[in-house]
Amino acid sequence: MGLVTATRAGRTAAGRLAEATAERDVRVYAVADLAQAWRECDEIVCFLAVGATVRLLAPLLGDKRTDPGVVCVDEANRFAVALVGGHAGGANRLARRVADALGATPVITTATDASGTGPLDEIGWPVEGDVAAVTRAMLDGEEVTLAADATWPLPPLPVTVEAAPVEEVVPPAPRVVVSDRIGAGRSRPTVVVRPPSLVIGVGASGGAPAEEILTLVSRALGDAGLAPGSVARLATVDVKAGEPGIVEAARALGVPLITHPADRLARIHVPNPSEVVRNAVGTPSVAEAAALAEAGAGGELVAPKRKSAMATVAVARLRPRGRLAIVGLGPGARDLLTPRAVAELRRSGHVVGLDQYVAQIRDLLRPGTRVIESGLGAEEERARTAVRLAREGHAVALVGSGDAGVYAMAAPALEFADGTFDVAGVPGVTAMLAGAALLGAPLGHDHCAISLSDLHTPWEAIERRVRAAAEADLVVAFYNPRSRGRDRHLSRALGILAERRSPATPVGVVTDAARPGQTVTLSTLGGFDVEPVGMRSIVIVGSTHSHVVAGRFVTPRGYSWQR
């Protein structure tokens, strides 16, 4: 990253940015050396006016696919403007990073970002074809067809027609084609997205040059009609982990090198085993077996081994894995929704959730997001739907309030899940934590959460848990404390705690925490009125050590210096 400065304020801001990006190679240049920065850096931040930067950059501009991304920061550090190379040069991402580091506002004017549409060239996979024409068609609301060889966990795309097989004849409308095959998507305008679907298995004699391995890989892919952009990784036997030619071939292809033990490869059935190879490395196959081992369950060999003088190569296609993100939305306030949750919502092609929770975040979803929403009481249906979509290969976000793992959707979803897709849990601010923050510090020492709903748990079991919490002298947070059909459970639970705690024990209730209509009440165990409490309330009862300090509910941590 190059930092170009002209003033004292610019140099100060550049120093702050350099500290925030200490893990990167950062170089500072004077304005007169901007041309040198252009040659040496992938990213440039100019602490200059936009107009001045435009004039200085004009003679240097070449090709947007190779030019560095440039961001301008004003003298007061109020704005970080993505000026050149928004997508290809990474200026849009750079503007966001710079803004985060300096407390500025990112200014991004590319049409896809401004409209919230996911850029085709920022899916994260290699993209070929007429990106500008297809993107413009999507932005203009024209018919755009999505064609794919398989279902991949894609981000939202505002396509209007889905036609799964790439070979099908379609109208000459713009297309987004997801395929690892050369020649896929010949109609125009077309963008071909290369999914990470191919694994190259490699075997080699000691000293095999990287050039020979790369040539063999190229021929194997070409003869099979497969695109190099879809190669996800190289695989070999573990005794070849340090073979220089294989290591350099992986580096040249820009993919990781994965190794497998010989005894594991020996158990994989391959079409072309070799006793010579078995005697040399302990497995009758390296290239084919390593490719299939790395492709995993459902993988298939699409190019059997081929040999050169010192190397062997085979190609396997892996089965796409869907992705299920289980996202906690927090208590309701937008500023308590985590950035990670927002990122997951924007990368998920499908969002599943309770209708009232979906309404909270609908404006954050990208155009093209498929929303599946339902009402109260359909939790199992939502969990099964999200799992089914992920199993089919989609990118899915299953949303819930608070933290999705606390009395929410994570548990039912994971009960139905299997190992055919990836799962990402996104924590959220729970009702207990939001309520505690409003009350003071009631959770300062050991505590527990108990739901008083007997819809799925018998009251006898709930009562045993409340008695155990009373015996253990834990602070207790009651979820689902009271409803029209359960108007006595809270009183009974408080009565159990009162058997072991004084009437002066603090009790706090927060209703609609961090939402419109929020109420916060602090009382005592002896004087607490249950009538205002409802299903949207959280009730926190102190331990024998809890007390009120300056109107705040506090449970001491018990540090030695407090004694």
TrEMBL record:
Occurrences of domain Cobalamin synthesis G N-terminal (ranges): 34-113
Keyword Lipid metabolism part of the UniProt annotation: no
Pathway(s): Cofactor biosynthesis; adenosylcobalamin biosynthesis
GO biological process, one term: methylation
Alphabetized InterPro entries for the sequence: 4pyrrol_Mease, 4pyrrol_Methylase_sf, 4pyrrole_Mease_sub1, 4pyrrole_Mease_sub2, CbiG_N, Cbl_synth_CobJ/CibH_dom, CobE/GbiG_C, CobE/GbiG_C_sf
Keyword terms of this UniProt record: Cobalamin biosynthesis, Methyltransferase, S-adenosyl-L-methionine, Transferase
CDD domains: Precorrin_3B_C17_MT (cd11646)
UniProt entry tagged with the keyword Protease: no
NCBIfam families membership: cobJ_cbiH
Entry protein name: Precorrin-3B C(17)-methyltransferase
Source species: Sphaerimonospora thailandensis
